[in-house]
């Protein structure tokens, strides 16, 4: 039985702050166990990727206590900003760093630290081919392995009336761009729509307040709802009512909610950034992350029945190509066995 130590952020299972990275970590740990691996998890609390001394001490103590040659998978949020800890153990342990989002996207001042960490690691894993290529190019790495997320199969969503119910399932943060969505929706306020923004407001409460203020200022309080996080059956119920999923991110290394929507046959309108075109694969609308361009795409969806029919057909077709988390776990296991 292969033993793997996995180092995770402390909030990996906190339902108040769900994220794609946390979901990925949880599902691959469970998937590796299902393949017969002995997975030993360590979730470390801290303000990662900028931890205080206590968090750093806990991480250092954990790695120090592992036997020489141990195989360790570290979430990049924990590892990337502390190269001094990674470097101290890189020659003794087989350290693999899983990068969900390069630090320069939200923490540009930590870019140099991440570069050092990734060069010290025995292997680096990203969540899409696009993200892997970006890490190679930006950090001068020889190779980065791509292990995309899986997607759970799901029944076709019923929707509401096939048109008006919009769903934005994302944490309310600047990177996810709800401010762009609110501005775009205000430009099509004369059309019939309703939008539910489902995601935590706790990761950046100042930004969440700003978005809520925009909604109020534009008189859209009865049409745009910021409903907080949902998971499990509650999140499934949100997808079940959705006619269109909207993701107006400024940056995405994969975009797991896109495939979650497509698994239910729901078309997607998403920002044309980073890995999103690769993930969407033609099964929806792409728009630059600018309010006017997003508004044009929304207007097309809301007014063009033939377009909606084509997008639903494309979503059904893409649904048939999606792979599950068991595939992700097998691919990750294959890579880890070679480290």
What is the CATH architecture annotation of the largest domain? 3-Layer(aba) Sandwich
How do the strands line up in the largest sheet? 2-1-3-4-5-6
Global geometry: globular
Q: Give the class-level CATH name of the largest domain.
A: Alpha Beta
CATH superfamily label of the largest domain? Glycogen Phosphorylase B
Strand content: 15-25%
Average of per-residue pLDDT values: 97
Our count of domains comes out at 2
Number of strands: 12
Structural class based on helices, strands and sheet pairing: alpha/beta
Task: Compute the number of helices.
Answer: 15
The largest sheet, given as strand count, sense and whether it forms a barrel, is: 6 strands, parallel
- Termini separation (Å)? 16 Å
Work out the helicity level. 40-55%
Q: Please compute the radius of gyration using only Cα atoms.
A: 20 Å
The low-pLDDT segments are: none
| Order of SSEs | EHEHEHHEHHEHEEHEHEHEHEHEHHH
CATH topology name of the largest domain, in short, is: Rossmann fold
What would you say this structure looks like, in words?
The protein has 339 residues and is of the alpha/beta class. It folds into two domains: 3-150 and 324-337, Rossmann fold; 165-319, Glycogen Phosphorylase B (Rossmann fold, 3-Layer(aba) Sandwich), CATH 3.40.50.2000. It is built from 15 helices and twelve strands. It has a six-stranded parallel beta sheet, with helices on both faces. A six-stranded parallel beta sheet has the order 9-8-7-10-11-12, with helices on both faces. Helix 9 (205-217) links the parallel strand 8 and strand 9. Helix 4 packs parallel to helix 6 (111-120), helix 8 runs parallel beside helix 9 (205-217) and helix 8 (178-187) crosses helix 13. The protein is globular and about 65 Å long. The mean pLDDT is 97.
């Amino acid at each position: 039985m292969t033993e793997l130590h996995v180092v995770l952020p402390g909030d990996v299972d906190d339902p108040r702050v769900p994220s794609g990275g946390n979901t990925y970590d949880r599902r691959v740990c469970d998937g590796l166990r299902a393949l017969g691996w002995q997975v030993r998890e360590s979730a470390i609390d801290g303000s990662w990727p900028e931890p205080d001394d206590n968090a750093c001490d806990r991480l250092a103590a954990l790695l120090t206590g592992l036997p020489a040659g141990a195989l360790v998978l570290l979430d990049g949020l924990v590892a990337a900003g502390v190269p001094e800890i990674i470097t101290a153990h890189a020659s003794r342990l087989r350290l693999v760093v899983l990068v969900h989002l390069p630090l320069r996207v939200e923490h540009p001042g930590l870019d140099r630290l991440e570069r050092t960490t990734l060069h010290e690691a025995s292997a680096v894993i990203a969540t899409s081919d696009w993200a892997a290529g970006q890490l190679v190019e930006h950090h001068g790495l020889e190779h980065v392995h791509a292990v995309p997320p899986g997607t759970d199969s799901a029944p076709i969503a019923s929707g509401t009336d096939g048109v008006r119910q919009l769903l934005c399932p994302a944490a309310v943060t600047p990177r996810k761009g709800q401010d762009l969505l609110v501005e775009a929706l205000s430009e099509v306020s004369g059309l019939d729509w309703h939008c539910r923004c489902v995601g935590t407001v706790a990761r950046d409460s100042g930004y969440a307040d700003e978005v809520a203020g925009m909604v109020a200022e534009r008189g859209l309080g009865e049409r745009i709802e910021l409903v907080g996080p949902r998971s499990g059956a509650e999140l499934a119920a949100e997808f079940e009512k959705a006619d269109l999923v909207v993701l107006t991110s400024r940056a995405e290394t994969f975009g797991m909610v896109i495939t979650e929507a497509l698994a239910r046959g729901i078309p997607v309108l998403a920002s044309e950034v980073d890995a999103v075109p690769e993930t969407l694969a033609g099964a929806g609308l792409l728009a630059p992350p600018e309010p006017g361009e997003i508004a044009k795409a929304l207007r097309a969806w809301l007014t063009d029945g033939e377009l909606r029919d084509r997008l639903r057909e494309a979503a059904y077709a893409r649904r048939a190509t999606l792979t599950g988390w068991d595939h992700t776990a097998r691919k990750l296991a294959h890579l880890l066995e070679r480290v």
